[in-house]
Specification:
Length: 348
């Protein structure tokens, strides 16, 4: 089951500065935590959970003619943090965009909620709070990877008027609109079924022995790295990326990982995709994605005929890290299209 735990949580940034900052991270439980204020800002969710947010304002002052009108919201995936977007964040900021990055509840520097709050529906409400408090006006482009993309679907389901009135584009990377209960993680049909059956309970039981689990990790670093690589990437990546990835995965509390598993398996928001109709949409997927096989991206594309589907050959699940230049280039092109489309709509 350790393999399944690794398989269901992949992604951490490679940026050296972000890694150094992560070493002393603490799970935040109060919105006025001084450590939080030193690093970024707080958005308070509707149930009081503090969500850690960092905002990159466009370079220069308010007279900066290169600044874009659109704010980009980057949403990471399961057992990731906003660090997964290190290169894309930097590239978009240099291009003149205002960039907002959030750590989802129970992840990174954000606070923990009650276990029943670890649902994709709640993540949708959390993102609504982020938009309302950190992006109160102006056009918004939504970018989500893996569970982050699912959270964007929940936001659209709950707040279609927000999408209609303010969202100029949505990018869905390595994500799914439903059917994850049928995914076997590349383990074959029978073993995959066992993983699904034992998953949440096994992880929850392991959380009661977190210290012993951490000790066991030290004894099996090579195995752990092999598993992280298998379920995260489709080809060779630097060893330090794999190592940092493993640290992020197991830096997430086991009970948080376990609490999210049921909502991932139950996720079905195919109908919610209709809220994105008429909005510039980018879908990206790797051909070797074991977590959300490419059929999931293709299914989303069929539901949104106007969307652009970019297939990344021989790449796995964590595209922002495995092919960072490709993801950045595609996102920048997508943002240009989104802004151009929005301007054309305004002139009609």
């Amino acid at each position: 089951m350790a393999a399944a735990g690794v398989a269901t949580a992949a992604g951490v940034g490679t940026d050296r500065a972000l890694r150094a900052r992560r070493k002393d991270r603490a799970v935040l439980r109060s919105a006025d935590d001084p450590e939080l204020e030193q690093r970024g800002s707080v958005v308070v969710a509707d149930d009081g959970v503090p969500l850690y947010v960092e905002i990159d304002e466009p370079a220069g002052n308010s007279d900066n003619t290169d600044a874009k009108a659109t704010t980009v919201l980057l949403v990471h995936g399961y057992a990731h943090s906003q660090a997964v977007w290190a290169q894309q964040r930097r590239d978009m900021h240099e291009a003149g965009y205002r960039v907002v990055c959030v750590d989802l509840r129970g992840h990174g520097r954000s606070g923990e909620g009650d276990d029943p709050s670890y649902t994709i529906a709640q993540l949708g409400r959390d993102l609504a709070s982020v938009v309302e408090q950190a992006i109160p006006d102006g056009p918004v482009a939504l970018v989500g990877h893996s569970m982050g993309g699912m959270a964007l679907m929940a936001l659209a389901e709950q707040r279609p008027e927000l999408v209609r009135d303010r969202v100029v584009g949505v990018a869905l990377i390595s994500t799914s609109a439903g059917g994850l209960s049928e995914v076997n993680f590349g383990l074959g049909k029978q073993l995959g079924a066992v993983v699904h059956r034992l998953g949440p309970g096994a992880v929850a039981r392991a959380d009661r022995q977190q210290n012993a689990f951490n000790t066991a990790r030290l004894l099996g670093r090579n195995v752990e790295s092999a598993l992280v690589h298998r379920y995260s990437f489709g080809g060779p990546v630097p060893k330090d990326v794999i190592r940092d990835l493993a640290e992020m995965i197991f830096g997430t509390r086991l009970h948080v990982i376990g609490a999210y598993l049921p909502t991932l398996m139950e996720h079905d928001r195919k109908a919610a995709l209709s809220a994105f109709e008429g909005v510039e949409t980018l879908i990206m997927h790797g051909t070797r994605d074991r977590m959300t096989p490419i059929a999931h991206g293709e299914s989303i594309a069929r539901s949104l005929p106007g969307a652009e589907l970019v297939v990344v050959k021989r790449a796995g699940h964590v595209l922002p890290l495995e092919t960072p230049e490709v993801v950045s280039a595609q996102l920048l092109a997508f943002l240009e299209r989104a802004e151009r489309s929005a301007q054309e709509q305004d002139t009609k």
